[in-house]
Amino acid sequence: MEILFYRYNSICEPDILQVFTDFGITVHTEEMEMTDKSVTPQQCAAKVTEWITTHPLSFVFSINFFPAISYTCNRFKVPYVCWSVDSPVPELFSNALKNEWNRIFLFDRAQYDFFHPVNQDCIFYLPLATNVKRWENVVLNMTDEDFVKYGGDVSFVGSLYTEKCRYDALLQNATVRSDHAVSHYDTPVISEYTRGFVDGLIEAQLKVYGYNFISDNLTDRVIREIADADPNFYRGSDTYMDTDRYLVAHQYIGMKLAAVERERTLNRLAEHSSVNLYTRSDASGLPRVHVRGGVNTLTEMPKVFHASKINLNITMRPIETGLSLRVWDVLGCGGFLLTNYQAEIPEYFEIGKDLETYESMEELEQKVQYYLNHEEERIEIAINGYEKVAKYHTYEQRLAEMIRILDSTL
After folding, report:
1. Which residues pair with 308 in a beta bridge?
2. Quick one: DSSP state of residue 128?
3. How far does the chain reach from its first CA to its final CA, in angstroms?
4. What is the pLDDT of residues 186-244, one digit of tens each?
5. Each residue's pLDDT tens digit, 61-118
6. Residue 105 CA neighbour count, 13 Å, CB half
7. I need a labelling partner for 131 at 20 to 30 A (CA). Which of 15, 17, 235, 357 fits?
8. pLDDT at residue 174, rounded to an integer
9. Residue closest to 307 by CA, chosen among 278, 267, 270, 345
10. DSSP letters spanning 88-127
11. Can you name the residues that pair with 157 across neighbouring β-strands?
12. Going by C-beta distance under 8 Å and a sequence separation of 6 or more, which residues neighbour residue 337?
């Protein structure tokens, strides 16, 4: 079997590439987007066409959805297989999603429920996974110096989303006008009404875990103001439905919510605990947090997960029910995980046995103090979580399930 793996530098790609190879599949890689982010859909289609017409490919694979690849594969009647690892993915609104040669796998069940009706025979649910073998090679060779350097009471690895928050950029790039003032800007700016509405919606959502209600509560006025204020707002010319509500809820307010939640959570924990933050984001708003800078995903991150007493996960709210890659990777490194509650967690793990969750800031603070003071229980939970992902949730198991679905549907 020969396949083409179209790459763009997702952190999942090396692990998936290795498993495909271990399965005995001949994997060709197209890597032009790994170094050139200006590749056009036309260039992408031309390159994939070249591969299809010169190789007997069983399918073309990518992380996340590329409409240009889908259209090209559909034209040549070659299966296009993709695995979504992000949310939101605006490209999923392309009419290409309806193509019959697609085999699309989505990791978030809410995302799956939203998009599955568009192409019921070609869209599937598949949670993420981890590479236990890779992490073992790192953590089993850790030195005493590594445990000192990367250890700590509470650790968080990840972006603060301050640099990725489009909503903040809109507020910073234009003067907010009152409802009655006349704007002299070419691009409409966001009114005080919308600012207050968004602030209130964020405060309400911060109090609720396991259910995302932002999209359902947006008004047409708020959607219009935010969309109109950004000249780069995604307006695909090839979409099967209006995307404005979804994108405002997830790309704008969802990212702002993530930034507020992460900064507020870390600051609050740092009032009573020692908190280490590994990030490349601007952390100037976290005066009590120990900011360590970024870490290498493959060589340093697993050491942090394994050496830290408590690894904190704060899922960004656009991932509505699913488990982010961070959940699987912390457990795959043998780390103790304390994460916000997500609706899909009980499907795969026993809370209090394999990992721990929180549904309020008060519960988070209580569990941090409890597990810092109960080492044996904390270590036992970390071991249980590791054993469960090693047995049931590796890339080998996920990709075997993917191929089983391909065999049964093609």
Report:
1. 152
2. -
3. 15
4. 556 899 999 999 999 999 999 998 889 999 999 999 999 999 999 989 887 899 999 99
5. 999 999 999 999 999 999 999 999 998 899 999 999 999 999 999 999 999 999 999 9
6. 21
7. 357
8. 54
9. 278
10. --GGGGBGGGG-TTEEEEES-HHHHHHHGGGSTTTEEE--
11. 278
12. 311, 313, 327, 330, 331, 355, 356, 382, 385
| pLDDT, tens digit (0-9, with 9 covering 90-100), for 97-109 | 999 999 999 999 9
The whole-angstrom separation of Cα 93 and Cα 240 is: 6
Taking residue 106's Cβ as centre, other Cβ atoms within 10 Å add up to 26
Q: Is the pLDDT of residue 386 over 50?
A: yes
What's the CA gap between 259 and 164, in Å, rounded? 9
* Among 304, 293, 288, CA closest to 336: 304
Q: Which two tokens stand for residue 112?
A: 């799956």
Distance CA 295, CA 281 (A): 12
- CA geometry: angle 11, 17, 127, nearest 5 deg: 65
Distance CA 223, CA 220 (A): 5
Dig out the tokens for 223 from the structure.
């959607």
> 134-161 burial string, b = 16+ CB within 10 Å, else e?
bbbebbeebeeebeeebbbbbbbbbebb
Q: 71 vs 134, 227, 358, CA distance in Å?
A: 35, 28, 43
Strand pairing class (152-157; 275-278): parallel
For residues 150 and 309, what is the distance between their CA atoms, to the nearest angstrom?
10
Instruction: Specify the DSSP class assigned to residue 38.
Output: T
Whole-Å CA distances, 127 to 4, 111, 289, 347: 22, 11, 32, 11
Neighbours of 371 (CB within 10 A): 21
**DSSP-assigned letter for residue 380:** H
- pLDDT tens digits, 145-193: 999 999 999 999 999 998 878 899 898 865 444 444 444 445 568 999 9
Q: How far apart are CA 340 and CA 207, in angstroms?
A: 12
- Helices marked H in 271-348 — which ranges? 301-307, 325-332, 345-348
pLDDT at 180: 43
Question: Could you read off the pLDDT of 198-208 as tens digits, one per residue?
Answer: 999 999 999 99
Query: CA 322, CA 342: separation in Å to the nearest integer?
Result: 7
